[in-house]
Amino acid sequence: MEKITERQKEIIDVAGKLLTESGIGGLTIKNIAREMQFSESAVYRHFQSKEEIVLLMLEYLALNMNERLGGLKTMEKDPPEKLLAIFENQLRFFSKNKQYVVAVFSDGLMEQSESINERILAIMQVKMRHLFPVVFEGQKKGFFTDEVKCEELIHIIIGAFRLQMFKWRAMGFDYDIKKSGMESVRALLKVIAK
Amino acid sequence: MEKITERQKEIIDVAGKLLTESGIGGLTIKNIAREMQFSESAVYRHFQSKEEIVLLMLEYLALNMNERLGGLKTMEKDPPEKLLAIFENQLRFFSKNKQYVVAVFSDGLMEQSESINERILAIMQVKMRHLFPVVFEGQKKGFFTDEVKCEELIHIIIGAFRLQMFKWRAMGFDYDIKKSGMESVRALLKVIAK
DNA sequence: CATAGGTTTGTTAGTATTCACTAACTAAAT
DNA sequence: ATTTAGTTAGTGAATACTAACAAACCTATG
After folding, report:
1. How far is A67 from chain B (nearest CA, A)?
2. Helix residue spans in chain B (DSSP H)
3. What pTM value is reported for the model?
4. Rounded mean pLDDT of A177-183?
């Protein structure tokens, strides 16, 4: 990964802000430039194209998520608590960085380019990779139902989480996702418990 | 509801086809006109704006879904079988009408206009309205877990279904959603069973 | 029945706006 | 002196949409 300049960081932050506030349609070079208080051409001093801005943003998220979830691996807890920790971590992050909710849980971005598409799917896989051992262990140790395959359980878990994010965004981020999100996760845990 | 002309129906079908094949970015008046084999301006003889085309498409879906799911109401079966019937119906429909997968399970469209946003949320509510009595009855009669509230169960069910649709679309609709979808629904039923 | 007149549905040829992106220049920092 | 990071002023392409016109079709009347 190349070094990221301060200006580049500022730009991807502004891009994220625009994404959050006005969606993919609002993410234009013109808007980025206005928000940065300089001209459109100046943006191109820091990125070769608009696509590169989005790609760098997604790269940030993937690295960040991998580190965050990786840090929870060593936890000495039972699978249900591990799951809770993972989602608490995720919810805290998305709560602070709403732009990634739009970036990842929206498919409008995916249509823009094949590389963006790939990177978004890669982020989903990061999440699955961290979820799998926890759910698998949970089934083996009898915490979660083993009536269905591990993959099916993960599908249900991720589906519920994504719908949370969808609703939150559709409501304009106007409630505390950490609170209602954790309630939903606890409900989910009860349902998948053995 | 106003009467829909034959040409209007043709146009919303073409719009759906474009949506399926090339996403929201491909849904342009130019593309619609080319597909219809006439000029761009001719499109405006049948609709006042592009937005109206999408709105009529969504209106069709809402009515259709309401009728389809309403027809299942009178079924004399237990809640689990009712749920299976609902999702079999949904899967068969979306399997035949992929354009609505893009329209409803994508938020790119929602950003385009407030009216479209409202209509998509209304479609979700149609689904919830038909799901609620079934899940509620299922909990009362002891088929589904009552460890969590009915709304939470519905959230989990819809979340799993939406993720199915998302994955199917992301893979370019290149497998039989009826088959894998029903497998997933059966797994879901096992998980939410009491 | 024939035809004049209006409506419907198409055409061509535009409009204004927005988009991502570029060329040429400039000032300042290194 | 050269590199960096900004400027102004544009490009061409795509967008939704419109004005003016024309042919076909329906319909009411002489």
Report:
1. 25
2. 6-26, 29-36, 40-43, 50-71, 79-96, 98-104, 108-112, 114-140, 150-170, 177-192
3. 0.95
4. 98
